[in-house]
């Protein structure tokens, strides 16, 4: 029977969905500004039915939901699956909402020196990237508001680290003294960005280097538009500085083109090759999890 899968990535501020056939082909896609924070308590079934009810009408159709819908603020909490974890471990912890029809993927947890780390949704993208690329070992980077750097061995996520790079950029560019001297809406400036990446490797630390974004304006050495890209380069460069990227081969980047482009440029400046995937990684990952 050619059963369809309704694959849903339900985040904090938005959600995406895809109708996928038994062979993993995406038949239709949709996206909405209906993240979990827009849903009233107890309102998830109605929101889901209004958006995906038509797709769910065919007998035998199953839905898998990844992302923040499985958090404490979401539809039903799906406790984290500890690393190291691959498809079998995550499948075993999938939380059924309507058994055999709608279920939620649990997300992953890791721990560093007694401090926990978590991801929800990115684990699905990683499994999808493994399926699409055939790379069962390596470093997988997922840029976003909270960036993830995940190590994969034999197709299993052995560990990961989260960096609040995107959120720190928003805070510094909108709510610090730097907001007065940079234009966060300016077009991306590759040269200024790479200058920031290089500056981050000077050993002086982000707290010192970030102040340079103010003094470069003070001495009129960079324009407001250039400074936005420079600050982005400083932050991403600081992130890369903590990783042994030079010791890796190809790095797999998963995310939006605007963000993966910056990481690809930064990594290239360090001599590291990259491969880039987008939303197809999510759909491939949910399809792989559904084949249990």
The number of distinct β-strands equals 14
Kindly name the structural category: alpha/beta
Largest sheet: 6 strands, mixed
Strand percentage = 15-25%
Helix and strand string, N-terminal first? EEEHEEHEEEEHEEEHHHHEHEH
Query: How does the overall form come out from the CA principal axes?
Result: globular
Cα-atom radius of gyration: 20 Å
Kindly, what is the distance between the CA atoms of the first and last residues, rounded to a whole number of angstroms? 15 Å
List keywords for this structure.
292 residues, 14 strands, five-stranded mixed sheet
Describe the structure.
The protein has 292 residues and is an alpha/beta fold. The protein is built from 9 helices and 14 strands. Helix 3 (122-133) packs across helix 9 (280-290), helix 4 runs antiparallel to helix 7 and helix 5 packs across helix 7. The model has no long low-confidence stretch (mean pLDDT 95).
Record the SSE blueprint.
Layout: E1 5-10, E2 15-20, E3 26-32, H1 44-52, E4 62-67, E5 81-82, H2 87-92, E6 95-98, E7 102-104, E8 108-112, E9 115-119, H3 122-133, E10 138-142, E11 147-153, E12 156-163, H4 165-175, H5 190-199, H6 206-218, H7 224-241, E13 251-254, H8 257-269, E14 274-277, H9 280-290
